[in-house]
């Protein structure tokens, strides 16, 4: 192989090598991790950088961890000092304002050397189960970052290949689940080593000059592709405003999210400065995470099918002033930074005004997570199980929205099978079904959300992490929003002694029964035979629902996606008892 | 004389391969006919006539067919309905709520239509809990009513029944099945618990639905083909290859045809294991390079790797299937430019129009065109001279579409196409070796399929594999392998318990029950005790993990020993053990009925002197990185004992073997070519 200007085949071979190195890192992490949140919910991000810390390959578990280590690697290397990095070092970082999420998403990286030259970095971030926060599991109401766990600002946990036992002990003694946490640290390091070996191999085989030139070509290709895609879009400025749920129980203090998108030539800017200031609740977003969700939206309209690299994001600029919700400053708490997830649909709402043909109407808009914890009555063992729910996706000008899919920020995540869940936790499900009439009406209908009913068989702890229940999503071109997310709790009458309901929706749903609560976020202990009904939101519709072909509305009624009442109310289509269209009545209703 | 002929017929996308073997004489005949999608039986009959099979003297007919998978891919299966628990009819549609990986950033993703729309999914009262206890009795009237509506209102031809926790207690499914059969005897029925005893309701439902969806078509086909063969005097046994190894009787295949759905590549793996056994190589990587794809599978200690959950078009199946890695890279794969990057596949020119050099109207340059440009194929040699090649057209296509835009020569762009294909292949093979803790350098690669013998020596070179085995007739090796199939059945039972809490008597009894069922099955098919082999496996994990490890459980003295075996397996696969308690998840038994089959005999030929090249030509040597002189041999001229130094090309009528300057091919006693050297040495 010649070592100068590499040819097209060499570049493609090297690109393939890097991509499969990242994929191999992911599989190593999944196989060796100790906690289900990593290997089932895929709460991790993996990336490979060159010596200048350009992203050259990634393999995120959660879609929203695309490029999630980009900000952290810069901050950590600045903190440690590039000159202090040696072969075999592993550096730990979870200072949220640098590592870009919350304290439990712990990032580790390893510098990679070839012939004594620094040639790149491998990184992984993954969700650990406990680092001594004020509450086990999730912290829902911290008021500063120090209630959320122990902080590592860029700390060497391995020095030149040797573990630093003092740091490892420090981690152990500050965790409620020391074995799991150390197991996960080792799994992350195993993944880093896998990637580092491959990167070294690559430099050994082709020589650093060829590898560097190929990386330049790969990044250049990424940048050109993204710029071309943006160039085809109209210039202008668009914004949208949405809200995450109220923070203070009993008070309407919803959190304002307002991205402003500007397209100019072959560049795009997303600015968050008109959003809320940072708040005294764990909803704040470190700036690195703000960049990451922006990259996700940007990627899905420019290079959705390509492997990620630095070049693809060069035409994107993200801004938010310090102290803004989207650029949280110390000591703002960040534990449940869900507004970052909710913001994704709001960025798409702004983009829908610019390039409707590139996006879809709003999805159900959240992860709809229920977490159960406590002691298994059969085995006596402690357990934590979390289950995210699919939501309805939004319609486009070409198709109805799909039913029941995980939110775009976590599209690889799977729900937990009923038969697995009933074996692990003291519950028996009453039902799991699509929510009829939950899809946003439109000429093209939004997708349906899910209703899942958990019935407890023994006492058990439970909480919900859902922050979009008070407000609805949005349709496009006259289409309407889908049904909102809501949790309906069917309780014994002493529930107030056991449950904290952070977001009470009784008024919104005009609740009549004192033992049936409508809620967003809650936490507490449940009795046998009490029921949690988790209902995820529907997708938004596209176009005027009164223009939907009555034959399609009839199909939806036969299928049971839309009720006859819904057909009449939302679509103006009257359907008879024998499931036929009453054309005359329909014409009258539709005017 | 007793019937002594064996016949195997493998239906592929383009060709029907047929092969006969005469046990008395050892003679093997091979033929190819065209696939006839409209009525596959015609293609089968053409193929067996072409190969001159004498059905009256045929004792065993082994058949591999893509009929079921095609019915699924083309959505031409039976109109199917589902009966499940009340409140849960949407499990099948909600599925696991994730998107396919390739669509992970696609905000405009469209979910494919389900095989069974909501209107044909019914919930009925009755509930069994996680321990297998009945919480609510089955509502029999509701079952009857649901079946009636499915049949009378929606016109279904097949019904899949799946109830929660039926892996623990199948009573409700069995009773529902009985009711449906009593009322609508003609309807095709698939009970999830008949196919798999494993937990996870969506995957089990999906498996039952796939089975129901293909069953009526499969039944008809088998009945029709069986009748046609019998009419022609066939009186032997009729076997169909299975997705997870071996074959089953045609009768048995029709009770759960989902087991045959991925049987396409099975023949090659059976053949590779068999050849490996004969020449004493237990650890193999089988690499099948065809026209459109590369399929690779690891064979360890003579057994191809099997996985217990796979998917077809993102529809999961809980049946054992060979763990095969497939990538869209074959002789027909199209090379193209993405800006200034050179890509190969996954689009393929297929057999029609095919590569440019076929001269059948193909206009996109392919891997085969690059092989021609590099000198490996010669126009007048191709397909034994039956089919000429359009060399000028191929070179022109490479020049115009690729070389000129990239400012490279045709030779450079052609080596590039090989390098890119090679990188994709190596990546796929690393996934099934290195990432599972296996070192590919400890394996022999088996090269087959039309393009295998040209590519695999390069793959081996790249991965440091020391030896490549090229079997006889590599382009029809899959059909040959089918002749070697044993009858195999698998059964599994979910048995969730922490190891410390396992009741050993109960554990043992569950195994005995599984073995009893399977052994009875084999006996009824004529396998006596001496021809039966039963293997036990336990799937285990650490408490809290999701992924299980399969632990061989034959000859176990107690549960502690099982724990030790598990720790050893976990350690060797993942590099560590854990402090959490081990947990048993599934018990599995594989029952093998050893079929009578041809044996591979050493050749009587002996090498006389050095092998003589039939020709010489310029071709590209990847070791020298240059066009050099290659000696060209005819495989028919090579005999046991011959050694052929590289660089060389060995011609066969339907394939071309290429090895490079630091490699050597030796001909063994069975006339296999064993290629060694290169980086592996």
Distance between the termini of chain A: 74 Å
Shape of chain A: globular
Q: What percent of residues of chain B are in strands? A: 25-35%
Low-confidence spans of chain B: none
Largest sheet entry of chain B: 9 strands, mixed
What does this structure look like?
The complex is a heterodimer of chains A (591) and B (681). Chain A is built from 14 helices and 23 strands. Chain A is an alpha+beta fold. Chain A folds into three domains: 218 residues, no CATH class; 184 residues, no CATH class; 43 residues, no CATH class. In chain A, β14 and β15 form a beta hairpin. Chain A is globular and about 80 Å long. Chain A starts with 7 loop residues before the first helix and ends with a helix. Chain B has 681 residues and is α+β, with helices and mostly antiparallel strands. In chain B, 30% of the residues lie in helices and 27% in strands. Chain B contains 16 helices and 35 strands. The two termini of chain B are 51 Å apart. The mean pLDDT of chain B is 89. Chains A and B meet through α1, α6, α7, α8 and α11 of A and α3, α7, β22 and α12 of B.
Q: What's the topology here?
A:
The complex is a heterodimer of chains A (591) and B (681).
Chain A: H1 8-32, H2 36-39, E1 44-50, E2 55-58, H3 70-80, E3 90-93, H4 96-99, E4 105-114, E5 117-127, E6 153-159, E7 162-163, H5 165-173, H6 178-206, H7 208-231, E8 236-239, E9 242-244, E10 255-257, E11 260-264, E12 267-271, H8 287-302, H9 310-313, E13 316-319, H10 339-354, E14 369-375, E15 382-387, H11 418-424, E16 427-434, E17 450-456, E18 460-465, E19 486-490, E20 499-501, E21 516-519, E22 522-526, E23 531-535, H12 550-559, H13 564-571, H14 583-590
Parallel strand pairs in A: 12-13
Antiparallel strand pairs in A: 1-2, 1-5, 3-4, 3-6, 4-5, 6-7, 8-11, 9-10, 11-12, 14-15, 14-18, 16-17, 17-23, 18-22, 19-21, 19-23, 20-22
Chain B: E1 5-11, E2 15-22, E3 28-34, H1 40-50, E4 58-64, H2 67-73, E5 80-85, H3 91-94, E6 121-124, E7 127-128, E8 134-136, H4 140-153, E9 158-161, H5 171-183, E10 188-191, H6 192-195, H7 201-231, E11 237-241, E12 247-249, H8 250-253, H9 266-278, E13 284-289, E14 294-300, E15 303-304, E16 306-307, E17 310-312, E18 315-317, E19 321-322, E20 325-327, E21 333-338, E22 341-348, H10 367-373, H11 391-406, H12 410-432, E23 444-448, H13 452-463, E24 467-470, H14 477-482, E25 487-498, H15 504-524, E26 532-542, E27 549-552, H16 559-574, E28 582-593, E29 615-621, E30 626-634, E31 643-645, E32 648-651, E33 656-659, E34 663-667, E35 673-677
Helix pairs in contact in B: 2-7, 4-5, 10-11, 10-12, 11-12
């Amino acid at each position: 192989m010649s070592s100068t200007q590499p040819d097209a085949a060499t570049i493609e071979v090297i690109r393939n090598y890097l991509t499969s190195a990242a994929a191999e890192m992911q599989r190593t992490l999944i196989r060796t991790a100790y906690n289900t949140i990593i290997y089932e919910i895929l709460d991790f991000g993996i990336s490979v950088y060159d010596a200048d810390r350009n992203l050259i390959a990634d393999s995120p578990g959660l879609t929203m961890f695309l490029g999630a280590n980009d900000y952290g690697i810069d901050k950590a290397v600045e903190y440690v000092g590039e000159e202090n990095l040696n072969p075999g070092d592993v550096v730990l970082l979870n200072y949220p304002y640098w590592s870009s999420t919350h304290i439990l998403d712990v990032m580790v990286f390893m510098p990679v050397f070839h012939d004594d030259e620094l040639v790149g970095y491998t990184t992984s971030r993954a969700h650990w189960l406990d680092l001594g926060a004020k509450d086990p599991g999730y912290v829902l109401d911290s008021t500063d970052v120090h209630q959320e766990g122990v902080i590592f600002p860029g700390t060497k946990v391995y020095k030149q290949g040797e573990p630093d036992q003092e740091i490892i002990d420090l981690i152990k003694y500050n965790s409620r689940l020391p074995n799991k946490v150390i197991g996960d640290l080792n799994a992350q390091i195993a993944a880093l080593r896998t990637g580092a070996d491959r990167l070294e191999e690559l430099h050994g085989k082709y020589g650093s000059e060829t590898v560097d030139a190929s990386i330049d070509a790969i990044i250049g290709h990424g940048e050109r592709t993204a710029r071309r895609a943006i160039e085809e879009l109209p210039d202008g400025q668009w914004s949208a405003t949405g809200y995450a749920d109220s923070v203070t129980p009993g008070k309407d203090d919803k959190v304002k999210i307002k991205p402003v998108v500007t397209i100019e030539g072959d560049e795009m800017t997303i600015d968050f400065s008109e959003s809320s200031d940072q708040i005294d609740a764990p909803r704040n977003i470190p700036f690195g995470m703000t960049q990451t969700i922006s990259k996700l939206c940007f990627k899905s309209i420019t290079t959705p099918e390509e492997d990620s690299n630095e070049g693809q994001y060069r035409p994107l600029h993200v801004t938010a002033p310090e102290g803004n919700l989207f650029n949280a400053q110390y000591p703002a708490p960040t534990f449940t930074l869900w507004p970052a997830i909710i913001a994704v649909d709001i960025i798409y709402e702004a983009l829908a005004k610019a390039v409707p043909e590139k996006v879809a109407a709003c999805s159900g808009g959240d992860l709809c997570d229920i977490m159960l914890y406590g002691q298994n009555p059969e085995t006596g063992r402690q357990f934590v199980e979390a289950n995210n729910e699919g939501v309805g996706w939004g319609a486009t000008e070409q198709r109805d929205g799909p039913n029941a899919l995980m939110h775009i920020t976590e599209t690889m995540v799977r729900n937990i099978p009923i038969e697995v869940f009933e074996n692990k936790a003291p519950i028996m499900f009453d039902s799991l079904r699509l929510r009829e009439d939950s899809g946003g009406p439109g000429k093209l209908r939004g997708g349906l959300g899910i209703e899942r009913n958990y019935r407890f068989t023994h006492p058990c702890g439970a909480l919900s992490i859902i922050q979009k229940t008070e407000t609805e999503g949005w349709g496009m071109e006259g289409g309407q929003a889908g049904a909102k997310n809501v949790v309906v709790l069917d309780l014994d009458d002493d529930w107030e002694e056991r449950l904290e309901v952070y977001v009470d929706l009784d008024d919104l749903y005009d609740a009549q029964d004192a033992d049936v609560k409508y809620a967003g976020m809650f936490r507490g202990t449940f009795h046998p035979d009490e029921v949690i009904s988790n209902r995820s939101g529907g997708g938004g519709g596209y176009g005027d629902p009164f223009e939907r072909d009555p034959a399609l509305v009839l199909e939806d009624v036969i299928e049971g996606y839309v009720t006859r009442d819904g057909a009449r109310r939302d679509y103006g289509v009257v359907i008879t008892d024998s499931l036929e269209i009453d054309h005359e009545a329909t014409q009258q209703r539709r005017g | 004389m007793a019937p002594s002929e064996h016949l195997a017929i493998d239906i592929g996308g383009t060709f029907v391969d047929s092969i006969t073997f005469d046990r008395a004489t050892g003679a093997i005949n091979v033929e190819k006919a065209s696939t006839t999608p409209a009525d596959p039986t015609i293609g089968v009959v053409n193929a067996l006539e072409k190969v001159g099979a004498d059905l009256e003297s045929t004792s065993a007919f082994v058949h591999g067919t893509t009929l079921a998978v095609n019915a699924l891919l083309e959505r031409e299966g039976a109109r199917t309905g589902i009966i499940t628990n009340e409140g849960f009819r949407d499990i099948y549609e909600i599925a696991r709520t994730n998107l396919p990986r390739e669509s992970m950033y696609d905000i405009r993703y469209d979910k494919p239509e389900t095989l069974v729309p909501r209107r044909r999914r019914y919930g009925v009262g009755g509930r069994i809990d996680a321990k297998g206890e009945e919480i609510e009795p089955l509502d029999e009237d509701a079952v009857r009513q649901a079946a009636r509506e499915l049949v009378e209102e929606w016109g279904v031809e097949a019904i899949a029944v799946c109830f929660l926790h039926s892996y623990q207690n199948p009573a409700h499914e069995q009773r529902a099945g009985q009711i449906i059969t009593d009322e609508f005897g003609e309807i095709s029925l698939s009970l999830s618990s008949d196919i798999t005893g494993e937990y996870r309701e969506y995957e089990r439902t999906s498996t039952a639905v796939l089975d129901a969806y293909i069953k009526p078509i499969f039944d008809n086909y088998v009945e029709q083909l069986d009748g046609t063969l019998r009419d022609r005097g066939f009186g032997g046994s009729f076997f169909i290859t299975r997705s997870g190894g071996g074959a089953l009787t045609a009768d048995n295949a029709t009770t759960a045809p989902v087991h045959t759905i991925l049987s396409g590549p099975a023949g090659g793996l059976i053949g590779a294991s068999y050849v490996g056994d004969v020449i004493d190589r237990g650890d193999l990587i089988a690499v099948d390079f065809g026209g459109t794809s590369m399929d690779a599978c690891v064979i360890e200690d003579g057994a191809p790797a099997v996985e217990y959950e796979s998917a077809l078009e993102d529809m999961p199946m809980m049946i054992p299937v060979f763990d095969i890695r497939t990538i869209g890279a074959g002789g027909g794969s199209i090379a193209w430019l993405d800006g200034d990057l050179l890509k190969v596949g996954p689009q393929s020119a297929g057999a029609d129009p095919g590569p440019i050099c076929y001269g059948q109207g193909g206009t996109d340059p392919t891997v085969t065109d690059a092989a021609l440009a590099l000198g490996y194929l010669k126009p007048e040699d191709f397909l034994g001279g039956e089919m000429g090649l359009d060399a000028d057209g191929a070179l022109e296509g490479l020049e115009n579409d690729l070389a000129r835009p990239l400012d490279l020569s045709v030779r450079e762009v052609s080596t590039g196409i090989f390098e890119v294909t090679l990188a994709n292949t190596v990546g796929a093979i690393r996934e099934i070796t290195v990432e599972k803790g296996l070192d590919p350098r400890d394996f022999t690669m088996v090269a087959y399929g039309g393009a295998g013998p040209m590519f695999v020596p390069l793959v081996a070179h790249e991965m440091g594999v020391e030896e490549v085995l090229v079997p006889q007739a590599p382009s029809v090796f899959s059909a040959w392998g089918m002749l070697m199939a044993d009858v195999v059945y698998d059964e599994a039972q979910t048995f969730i318990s922490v190891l410390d809490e396992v009741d050993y008597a109960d554990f043992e009894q569950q195994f005995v029950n599984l073995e009893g069922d399977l052994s009875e099955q084999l006996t009824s098919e004529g396998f006596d005790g001496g021809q039966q082999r039963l293997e036990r496996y336990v799937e285990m994990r650490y408490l809290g993990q999701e992924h299980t490890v399969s632990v061989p459980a034959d000859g176990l003295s107690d549960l502690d020993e099982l724990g030790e075996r598990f720790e050893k397996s976990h350690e060797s696969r993942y590099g560590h053990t854990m402090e959490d308690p081990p947990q048993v998840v599934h018990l599995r038994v594989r029952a093998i009925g050893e079929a009578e089959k041809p044996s591979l005999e050493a050749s009587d030929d002996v090498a006389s002197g050095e092998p003589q090249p039939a020709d010489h030509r310029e071709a590209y040597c990847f070791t020298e990185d240059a066009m050099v002189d290659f000696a060209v041999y005819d495989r028919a001229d090579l005999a046991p004992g011959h050694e052929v130094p590289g660089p060389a090309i060995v011609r066969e009528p339907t394939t071309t073997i290429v090895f490079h300057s630091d490699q050597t091919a030796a001909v063994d006693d069975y006339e296999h070519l064993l290629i060694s050297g290169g980086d592996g040495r």
